[in-house]
């Protein structure tokens, strides 16, 4: 799954050169057409196929499987390599965090729901290009989709151990006993590095590309595993070297737990109320810097007559969510309880033409109120709330409640 660019495309072209029939899957129609055109020019037009699908969606992955099923009675090899870096947290149309959806969930669905097609082949193999053996920290069982404290690289790397457990779970309860499941770390390869990067990360990626193996060399381990699948039901490799299946990311109990969590999640899709987070004209890294500074923000809520009501507030953040306080019984609170749509505008004082307008949905969090009041007072005054009020009695607030802005769209010039 994947194959419109990078190593997936290179593997597909290699297979065509060796006389095989190949299907690539991706959502970019132009890249798919370019692949088919190149295949035709190489005399392989009848053996090259492109299935257009959004693999970040379970419905998209299943639609792709249905198209493949209509084309072939059997599949010899399934190569899983689709992933996409996102500097800011995004949620798919089905309500799933994008990294988790594309890098893990689509691979789970494809591995299990194509089992009958693979079982019909003589020597079937799944090659999951995910990075086994790389240090990636512990599984975030409490928050698999990084709803709190999103960090782009951490979220992407989290897909590695999830896929390790996918492979272990596949071998533990195999939908096909013929399939050999292979986890592969191909090393650092100068591939497409598909993603949406902030400027600082983009610069680091270019530096990595300069010293990485070229794609033609990087696909060598994949090709070798396709030509000679290992005998074991599950194996892991760092390029051409086997990796021992030890450590927390290869534990059978953890694999069973993840399989249970995944199957439960699949029964809940699509999850209503979760919307894709879109960012335009704003650097995610710069926005975090601004929100972490003691900047005054303008909160806009909607009055009963539809007109805007604006107030200046202190703000903090939790991952990409924006936190602020409102007085109990205030106009802001009444507006938000009636209509939770809200916008927060921040303008760095040192860059008067720079701004970010963060729009989304307000969620009241009473349990957070006391801590947030103390955190904001310390951030903006340098002293705890009690000390601040003792020094400045007029600053004492009445009852307050914490508000979390869950962003859906951010636009601006920052």
Descriptive notes:
Residues 285-365 form the Pyridoxamine 5'-phosphate oxidase N-terminal domain. It holds the Pfam family PNPOx_N. It comes from Pseudonocardia hierapolitana. With 414 residues, the protein is an alpha/beta fold. It has two domains: 6-268, NAD(P)-binding Rossmann-like Domain (Rossmann fold, 3-Layer(aba) Sandwich); 278-413, Pnp Oxidase, Chain A. Helices cover 39% and strands 23% of the residues. It has helices spanning 6-17, 29-41, 58-71, 98-113, 115-119, 152-172, 199-211, 215-218, 220-227, 252-268, 284-292, 331-338, 369-381, 385-391, and strands at 22-26, 48-52, 77-80, 85-86, 125-129, 180-185, 195-196, 234-238, 241-243, 278-280, 296-302, 308-314, 316-318, 321-327, 341-346, 355-364, 400-413. The strands form four sheets. Strands 10, 11, 12, 13, 14, 15, 16 and 17 form an eight-stranded mixed sheet that branches. Helix 3 (58-71) runs parallel beside helix 4 (98-113), helix 4 runs parallel beside helix 6 and helix 6 packs across helix 10 (252-268). The longest helix is centred in the middle third of the chain and has 21 residues, at 152-172. The chain is elongated, with a radius of gyration of 25 Å. The two termini are 36 Å apart.
């Amino acid at each position: 799954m994947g194959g419109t660019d990078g190593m997936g495309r290179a593997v597909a072209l290699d297979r065509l050169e060796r006389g095989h029939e190949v299907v690539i899957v991706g959502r970019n129609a132009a890249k798919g057409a370019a692949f088919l055109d190149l295949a035709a020019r190489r005399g392989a037009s009848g053996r090259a196929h492109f299935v257009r699908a959004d693999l970040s969606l379970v419905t998209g992955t299943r639609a792709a499987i249905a198209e493949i099923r209509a084309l072939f009675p059997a599949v010899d090899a399934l190569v899983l390599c689709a992933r996409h870096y996102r500097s800011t947290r995004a949620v798919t149309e089905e309500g799933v965090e994008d990294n988790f959806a594309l890098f893990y969930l689509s691979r789970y669905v494809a591995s299990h729901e194509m089992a009958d097609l693979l079982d019909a082949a003589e020597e079937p193999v799944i090659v999951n290009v995910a990075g086994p053996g790389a240090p990636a920290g512990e599984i975030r069982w409490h928050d698999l989709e990084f709803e709190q404290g999103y960090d782009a690289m951490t979220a992407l790397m989290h897909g590695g151990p999830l896929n390790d457990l996918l492979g272990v779970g596949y071998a533990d309860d195999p939908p096909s006993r013929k399939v050999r499941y292979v986890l592969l770390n191909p090393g650092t390869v100068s591939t497409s590095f598909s993603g949406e990067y902030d400027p600082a990360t983009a610069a680091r990626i270019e530096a990595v590309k300069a010293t990485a193996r070229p794609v033609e060399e990087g696909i060598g381990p994949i090709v070798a595993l396709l030509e000679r699948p290992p005998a074991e039901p599950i194996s892991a490799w760092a390029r051409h070297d086997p990796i021992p299946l030890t450590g927390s990311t290869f534990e059978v109990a953890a694999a069973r737990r993840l399989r249970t969590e995944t199957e439960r999640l699949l029964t809940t899709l699509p999850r209503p109320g979760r919307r894709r987070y879109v960012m335009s004209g704003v650097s995610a890294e710069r926005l975090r810097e601004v929100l972490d500074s003691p900047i005054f923000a303008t909160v806009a809520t909607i009055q009963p007559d539809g007109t805007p009501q604006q107030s200046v507030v202190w703000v903090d953040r939790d991952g990409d969510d924006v936190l602020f306080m409102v007085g109990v019984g205030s106009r802001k609170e009444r507006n938000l309880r009636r209509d939770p749509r809200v916008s927060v505008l921040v303008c760095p004082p040192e860059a008067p033409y720079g701004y970010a307008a963060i729009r989304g949905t307000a969620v009241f969090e009473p349990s957070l109120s006391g801590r947030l009041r103390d955190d904001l007072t310390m951030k903006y005054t340098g002293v705890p709330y009690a000390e601040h009020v003792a020094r400045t009695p007029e600053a004492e607030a009445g009852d307050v409640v914490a508000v979390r802005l869950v962003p859906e769209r951010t636009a601006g010039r920052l």
